[in-house]
Amino acid sequence: MKRLPLTGIRVLDLSRILAAPLAAQSLGDLGAEVIKIERPGRGDEARRWGPPFLKDTEGRDTRESPMYLSANRNKRSITIDLARPEGQDLVRRLVEQSDVLIENYKVGDLKRYGLDHESLRRLNPRLIYCSVTGFGQTGPYAAQPGYDTVFQAMSGLMSVTGLPDGVPGGGPMKTGPSLADFMAGQFATAGILAALYERDTHSGEGAHIDIALLDSTIVAQTHSVATYLATGQVPPRRGTEGNGGLPSQAFACADRSVIVICGSEDQYREFCEALGHPELASDPRFVTNSERLRHRTELAATFGAITAQWQSADLLAALKQAGIPSGPVNTYDEVFADPQVQHRGVAITADHAQAGPTRFCGSPIRFTGMPGRAPMAPPVLGQHTDEVLRDVLGLDGTAVAALREARVV
Questions:
Q1: Is the pLDDT of residue 369 over 70?
Q2: What is the C-alpha separation between 71 and 254, in angstroms, rounded?
Q3: What pLDDT is stored for residue 1 in this prediction?
Q4: Which domain holds residue 276?
Q5: Can you tell me whether residue 192 is helix, strand or coil?
């Protein structure tokens, strides 16, 4: 492969906040040209979701929050007032030359401007139009707004996240990052890629993709949801305990906690040996995984008392030698100092228009033998307006100046 797979694909990103912008960002990572269309003067609401804010080269706050930075690399930003007929016309002209449009407006909002799927497919029958909303385009909740935490709650994710009832700190808990947004964004990306493939290999026609955060967050819970659907049993919260082979949880050492997972009987026996307690491998309470599941409270207490005598580095070294899946519970500074993370190049650096060289997360998708695209920092508001109007729509300087004077862009 000599070029990124989406080279030559143009994406119009009419979305804000997080879920849908993440989908557009993923397409940009894969080589697509992504044009982010924002409201003049204000832009994506996520830009203002701070502090903290990115600092410029003089150490002053910019308008760019980490929330915005996380979902907008490899894009160009232009400003267009969609409420103005002239702005709507500019979007339609861009649509005629684009492959994908991503939006996350409330259901029906873009129809007021003639920018809904049905209107735009008449202009460009090959357009892949992806709508990302909280509850989807249909159903009794379709018109309702919502954010990540709402969907973590309604999907049941919070009900299986956190410590059990009856212990200090027990109760439902959201995940730290906005995982409902992330998962919806990835499902949107998958849907768009599938629609592009179908269009270019079969029908030649576009599609309307309907992604809901609620749907996505339910489906993403995989085996937890499958447990309920298959058995009728509602899974309880188990803190750091895993869902398969045991032991599988965080164990406190003398200095910090480590995660240990024994996914097989052999790994359980090796774990006992590594701890210097081979007799626990034949303890009737723990001799099989089924027995360990039945006695999971005693299991945790027994091994927790042993690991508390260890320094974490020594225990992790012993577990690595024994081939036991394990690792430290890292904070972000420790994550990005980890030699494996550094080797994989998870953090990238790109020149930001205001802050200069700035670190971001890159895409985890790598194609063997081919370097990834040179990263573009998330754009400042309207950074590429003149460039896009000139290069894509062929407008000259006088035409662009007139649009600026009329506050259309």
A1: yes
A2: 39
A3: 61
A4: 257-328
A5: helix
Residue 242: the pLDDT is 82
Whether the pLDDT of residue 129 is over 80: the answer is yes
Asked, for residue 110, whether it belongs to a domain, the answer is yes
pLDDT average, residue stretch 81-95:
98
Structural contact between residues 346 and 362, judged by C-beta atoms closer than 8 angstroms = yes
Confidence at residue 3, expressed as pLDDT on a 0 to 100 scale: 87
CA distance 64 to 48: 7
Q: Answer whether residue 237 shows pLDDT above 70.
A: yes
Is the distance from CB of 87 to CB of 80 less than 8 angstroms?
A: yes
Catalytic residue among 181, 283, 338, 386: 181
112 and 22 in a common domain? yes
pLDDT recorded at residue 167: 87
The helix (H) or strand (E) run that includes residue 49 is none
**Per the domain annotation, does 62 fall within a domain?**
yes
Question: In this prediction, what percent of the chain has a pLDDT beyond 70?
Answer: 100
Residue that finishes a domain, picked among 303, 328, 353: 328
What CATH number does the domain containing 347 carry?
3.40.50.10540
Distance CA 173, CA 168 (A): 13
Quick check: is 255 catalytic? no
pLDDT at 374 (0 to 100): 87
Measured CA to CA in angstroms, residue 237 lies from 159, 243, 392 at distances of 7, 11, 52
- Kind of pairing between the strands at 10-14 and 100-103: parallel
The CATH code of the domain that includes 305 is: 3.30.1540.10
pLDDT value, residue 244? 78
3-state secondary structure of 79: strand
When divided into structural domains, the chain yields a total of 2
* Total Cβ atoms within 10 A of residue 121: 17
Q: In 278-346, which ranges are continuous DSSP H helix?
A: 289-294, 296-307, 312-322, 332-337, 339-344
Judgement on whether residues 268 and 395 belong to the same structural domain of the protein = no
